[in-house]
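Exercise 7. Given the encoded structure of a 292-residue chain, write a plausible sequence.
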């Protein structure tokens, strides 16, 4: 029970990042920069308490991972701006799960048993169906007919998701498949890399605007999610921790609709619920696959 309680924290924390940051406001660059400031403050606090040994290797790969993360997060914020939180977040999570699972299975041989391939194939199919229904749009929606730039914005959102997924997957593969570092040790170097990456995306034109400072609170949410993900995996196992973390999609969709006023027609709500059900089912199945 304690492990499940721990797993709820990253679910809520990571699921809330998108709509809280968009509620605060600011450009995608300001959102990313503010988030990395908060993440660095949190990570430094963790380092002061734990005081892990920081080797040159840890610094190098931690900063590299942080740079890749910054690319992924910036792309996700851009996608949210173009497509809305309730559409962009499920697509972002789903694409990372699908492509990341395929890389793990066929590049790093994470799937070795026949049952893993069977369950994995079903899970990926569910995620792809979730992709389709989460992004499906109602042609009869008056907003689509009135807002001429909306379709082009939607295509920009997909392009932003593409480079976001590359950044996030590179960061994930680096820490999960190539270099294995304890989270409490690598979180500070990684936060430094995140901040440098955010500054580079802003072309080092630093402005501590109110939007940036407020978005630093979102970085603390990110840090809390990371720490409790570690605790959840230790107490309840990686399968439970992984599956629960993906349920953050529910939080982001609800937040986008309830707090950001992202309107949906009745048809779009039905499609979104189908897509959400498929995403959650696929994520849970992938958690089961990881437990073998």
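Solution.
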């Amino acid at each position: 029970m304690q492990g499940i309680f721990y797993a709820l924290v990253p679910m809520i924390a990571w699921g809330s990042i998108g709509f809280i940051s968009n509620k605060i406001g600011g450009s995608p660059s300001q959102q990313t920069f503010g988030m990395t400031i908060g993440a660095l403050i949190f990570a430094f606090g963790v380092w002061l308490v734990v005081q892990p040994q920081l080797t040159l290797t840890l610094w190098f790969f931690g900063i590299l991972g942080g740079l890749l993360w910054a690319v992924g997060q910036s792309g996700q914020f851009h996608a949210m701006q173009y497509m809305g939180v309730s559409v962009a977040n499920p697509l972002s999570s789903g694409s990372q799960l699908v492509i990341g699972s395929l890389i793990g299975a066929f590049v790093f041989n994470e799937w070795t048993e026949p049952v893993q391939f069977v369950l994995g194939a079903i899970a990926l199919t569910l995620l792809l169906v979730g992709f389709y229904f989460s992004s499906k749009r109602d042609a009869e929606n008056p907003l689509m007919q009135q807002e001429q730039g909306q379709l082009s914005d939607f295509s920009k959102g997909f392009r932003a998701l593409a480079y976001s997924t590359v950044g996030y997957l590179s960061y994930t593969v680096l820490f999960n498949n190539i270099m294995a570092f304890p989270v409490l040790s690598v979180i500070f170097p990684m936060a430094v890399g995140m901040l440098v990456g955010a500054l580079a995306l802003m072309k080092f034109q630093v402005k501590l605007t109110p939007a940036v400072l407020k978005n630093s609170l979102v970085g603390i949410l990110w840090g809390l999610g990371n720490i409790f993900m570690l605790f959840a995996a230790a107490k309840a196992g990686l399968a439970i921790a992984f599956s629960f973390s993906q349920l953050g999609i529910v939080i982001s969709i609800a937040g986008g609709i309830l707090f950001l006023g992202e309107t949906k027609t009745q048809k779009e709500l039905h499609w979104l619920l189908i897509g959400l059900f498929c995403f959650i089912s696929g994520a849970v199945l992938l958690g089961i696959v990881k437990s073998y």
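Remark. The two ends are 21 Å apart (CA to CA). Students should compare their own answers with the one above.
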